[in-house]
């Protein structure tokens, strides 16, 4: 019988350590809230008011995002801003880090994620800024190490009570995951920069709301050394800029239902006239759909929409893709302690793989969260996703399932233990994989 290697043994120790940290911890009783009513100097609810906020879900809330004044970080004040710094450290065991269908390689991985957010306290207008980083360190396969970072900002200018202008801007240094269908399987993960800007305006007129925006996204992929080969993989032919205009009109038919229609038009402009295989990947496309936002009660809310979408490519060898555009997000709070969520989506995704013009992705996911105690949550989730590569003989079926335990220790410390299973079954056998990941996370915040 084969003996587990040292990394596998450390993976089991990771599970044991997580259970050892989480299981013996005390937790707040669910029937609290008998303290005197009042507020703190910063306006935070205490006593009976705090207990009610923790016990009862407000409209649009789930068990995960409900108010928890006892364990929520307070942050610190810096002039007209609130500052929220945090640092999360995760130790993970992954039994197939390259997402291969044979010769799987396992490893222990450390993730270090610092973050700081600034939120304005102005009575009119708003500005939020977030800086975050991620340093990932592999115990054995150090070529897989990467550093991500991002700077994001969003703001709102209140023109009048019924109108506002909103703006967003971001710069992110990211990498392609090994399970991405776009992964070129280089010696190291492919890094890329994503720069994005959004400018929009919202205007309300009685029961009608108009939202119009324009956005630009620029993607710049870095070259990477070829794996098991000599030379570099050229990713310059993947660099592109995406321009998009979006408009939506919603009609409030009642306090609980809003009907909406929305449409968008996009231009995908590649820096290179043709890619390395001589294909012109520039394209233009549009989406149009109608649907309803609903809030039947604090128990059931969400949105459903359906329409049509199309993407037309300039290259004569890349086929036009069109079809149904639909999606839904439905949340059901079965009790004050249990939330079920369902999401469905269909979209046309960009691809630069071989002769394919695009990927048509259809996905459905289901999750359940339960609050065992006010500061102890458990959750399970599942996903099925199908990706059809247009113009080539490749279809991928993806399955995911996960479970997690989250302990909200106090205002300054959280702990979580999670497990995730993922599997891809493709018409191309070399793209198949199965992976199991266990993660233990500790997060400190002010």
Would you mind describing this structure in some detail?
With 446 residues, this protein is mainly beta. It is 6% helix and 60% strand. The strands form three sheets. The protein has an 18-stranded antiparallel barrel. Strands 1-2 form a two-stranded antiparallel sheet. The protein has a two-stranded antiparallel ribbon with strand order 11-12. A hairpin with a 7-residue loop joins strand 18 and strand 19. The termini are far apart. Mean pLDDT is 89; it is low at 31-49.
**First and last CA, distance:** 50 Å
Mean residue pLDDT: 89
Query: Which structural class matches the secondary elements?
Result: mainly beta
Order of helices and strands: HEEHEEEEEEEEEEEEEEEEEEEEE
- Stretches where pLDDT is under 50 for at least 5 consecutive residues are 31-49
Question: Number of DSSP helices?
Answer: 2
Strand content: over 45%
Give the tally of β-strands: 23
Largest sheet properties:
18 strands, antiparallel, barrel
Shape: globular
